[in-house]
């Protein structure tokens, strides 16, 4: 079994509660596997830092319901405990068709994943502006969908003992277990900025934070009730069989992957799949290294925060020129969001300062106040590095920058997942470059990884590298 940490809405403290539980269990030397529902990158970084084990994303839009089951089952094997952090409010999802389920109005929500994996839910409630009304909230969440096993609640941001008494008295008729009580914690806070929490790699004293969270969890949660819910008692059902993979090349295909404070948005499943298919992922830093690794025959730039480190990226002239020459030489290059911004001519930051970037894409990336956010159905307009014409894939956008020039020729025609959503032309494709704001998960799209590695292998052979 495992446990889903859900919220009655966004911002109620799901991540704090999850990290507190993970910190406590990890300091007990327990083997803990964590999961995050949705397309999030930053929360999983914190999970991974706590448990020293990669957090896995559970997203049936980017993958499928079958993939979510398979991912959960395979990564729970051999674990002592497992914990799933939800997304937004418990029932916040989209209207979509599930596999063999007809229409699901809360598809990809926390509730959907809890039903799909048959897991109990603990609901986190922000009590800072509540007293008697807490009972109505709990009653509503427990009653709305009887398929949800609401195992208990955690009262967060309780102001005082008097406040707690009011909450408990109100909840008495509802008869639901209170599994945790967290008072306001001004000394425990994770700083954030324009796209959410600041990534763990940028924060000092993480271990001190996790120690405080472990102490908080020890004193605030009902572990006698929680541990049986969190414990993995037996091996889950075997994973769903995957489609056969092509033969692994005799020697690894070396891919230079940008991994530093500016570029760190990667789904662990994508990296695992590339390695399974024969890639050797060699980390390097566009912030600090003079150039990508010599033996690389492909470049992989994930998302991140190049706008925060624009000065450092611009001042590393040798790295920018080395990347530019590699791309011009025909080296296959995959760039998502922040990676796309790095390949542009200029980056204009929030202070309206302009910084030189690699200069491969004839456009500038300018930061703004408007947030572009949501799932996207992307259809390839022509053959490209990774796609065949008219192929369709689901991805996710999350950025505050906009390009000053439209891509010529564009890579995708995109639309949102809501009815009558507008159509946009998006992404750059030329030579051996795929550059797009769309974040992709390779889990049910192995052809993406296969084609990328095939192009990298061909480049390797043509240039007789290594």
Automatic annotation (TrEMBL):
It comes from the Bacteria. Gene3D superfamilies: 3.40.50.880, P-loop containing nucleotide triphosphate hydrolases. Residues 3-194 form the CobQ/CobB/MinD/ParA nucleotide binding domain. The keyword Magnesium applies. One of its GO terms (biological process) is cobalamin biosynthetic process. CDD domains: CobB_N, GATase1_CobB. Its EC number is 6.3.5.11. The active site is at residue 337. Keywords: ATP-binding, Cobalamin biosynthesis, Glutamine amidotransferase, Ligase, Magnesium, Nucleotide-binding. The record marks 439 as: Increases nucleophilicity of active site Cys. Pathway: Cofactor biosynthesis; adenosylcobalamin biosynthesis; cob(II)yrinate a,c-diamide from sirohydrochlorin (anaerobic route): step 10/10. It catalyses: cob(II)yrinate + 2 L-glutamine + 2 ATP + 2 H2O = cob(II)yrinate a,c diamide + 2 L-glutamate + 2 ADP + 2 phosphate + 2 H(+). Pfam families: CbiA (PF01656), GATase_3 (PF07685). Its cofactor is Mg(2+). One of its GO terms (molecular function) is ATP binding. Residues 254-445 form the CobB/CobQ-like glutamine amidotransferase domain. The keyword Zinc does not apply. Belongs to the CobB/CbiA family. The a and c carboxylates of cobyrinate are activated for nucleophilic attack via formation of a phosphorylated intermediate by ATP. CbiA catalyzes first the amidation of the c-carboxylate, and then that of the a-carboxylate. Catalyzes the ATP-dependent amidation of the two carboxylate groups at positions a and c of cobyrinate, using either L-glutamine or ammonia as the nitrogen source. Comprises of two domains. The C-terminal domain contains the binding site for glutamine and catalyzes the hydrolysis of this substrate to glutamate and ammonia. The N-terminal domain is anticipated to bind ATP and cobyrinate and catalyzes the ultimate synthesis of the diamide product. The ammonia produced via the glutaminase domain is probably translocated to the adjacent domain via a molecular tunnel, where it reacts with an activated intermediate. This is Cobyrinate a,c-diamide synthase. It comes from Hydrococcus rivularis NIES-593. The gene is cbiA.
């Amino acid at each position: 079994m495992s446990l889903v940490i859900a919220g009655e809405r966004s911002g109620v403290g799901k991540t704090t509660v999850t990290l507190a539980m993970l910190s406590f269990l990890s300091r007990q030397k327990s083997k803990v596997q964590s999961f995050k529902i949705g397309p999030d990158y930053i929360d999983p970084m914190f999970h991974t830092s706590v448990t020293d084990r990669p957090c896995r994303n559970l997203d049936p839009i980017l993958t499928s319901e079958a993939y979510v089951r398979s991912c959960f089952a395979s990564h729970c094997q051999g674990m002592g405990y497992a914990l799933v952090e939800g997304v937004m409010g418990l029932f916040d999802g989209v209207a979509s068709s599930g596999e063999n389920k007809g229409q699901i109005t809360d598809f990809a929500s926390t509730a959907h994943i809890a039903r799909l994996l048959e897991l109990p839910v603990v609901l986190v409630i922000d009590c800072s502006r509540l007293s008697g009304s807490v009972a109505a909230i709990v009653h509503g969440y427990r009653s709305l969908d009887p398929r949800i096993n609401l195992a208990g609640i955690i009262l967060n941001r309780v102001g005082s003992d008097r406040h707690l008494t009011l909450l408990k008295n109100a909840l008495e008729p509802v008869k639901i277990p209170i599994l945790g009580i967290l008072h306001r914690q001004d000394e425990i806070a994770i700083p954030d900025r324009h796209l959410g929490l600041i990534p763990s790699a940028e924060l000092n004293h993480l271990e001190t934070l996790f120690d405080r969270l472990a102490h908080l969890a020890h004193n605030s949660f009902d572990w006698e009730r929680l541990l049986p819910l969190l414990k993995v008692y037996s091996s889950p059902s075997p994973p769903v069989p995957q489609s056969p993979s092509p033969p692994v090349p005799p020697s690894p295909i070396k891919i230079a992957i940008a991994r530093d404070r500016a570029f760190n948005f990667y789904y662990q499943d994508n990296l695992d799949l590339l390695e399974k298919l024969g890639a050797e992922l060699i980390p390097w830093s566009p912030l600090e290294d003079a150039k990508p690794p010599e033996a690389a025959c492909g470049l992989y730039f994930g998302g991140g925060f190049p706008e925060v480190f624009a000065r450092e990226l611009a001042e590393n002239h040798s790295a920018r020129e080395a990347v530019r020459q590699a791309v011009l030489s025909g080296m296959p290059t995959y760039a998502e969001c922040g990676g796309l911004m790095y390949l542009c001519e200029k980056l204009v930051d929030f202070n309206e300062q302009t910084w030189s970037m690699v200069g491969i894409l004839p456009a500038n990336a300018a930061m703004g106040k408007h947030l572009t956010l949501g799932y996207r159905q992307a259809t390839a307009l022509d053959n490209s590095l990774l796609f065949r014409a008219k192929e369709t894939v689901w991805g996710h956008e999350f950025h505050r920058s906009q390009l000053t020039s439209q891509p010529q020729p564009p890579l995708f025609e995109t639309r949102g997942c809501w009815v009558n959503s507008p159509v946009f032309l998006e992404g750059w494709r030329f030579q051996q470059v795929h550059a797009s704001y769309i974040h992709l998960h390779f889990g049910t799209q192995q052809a993406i990884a296969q084609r990328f590695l095939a192009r990298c292998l061909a480049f390797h052979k043509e240039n007789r590298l290594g």
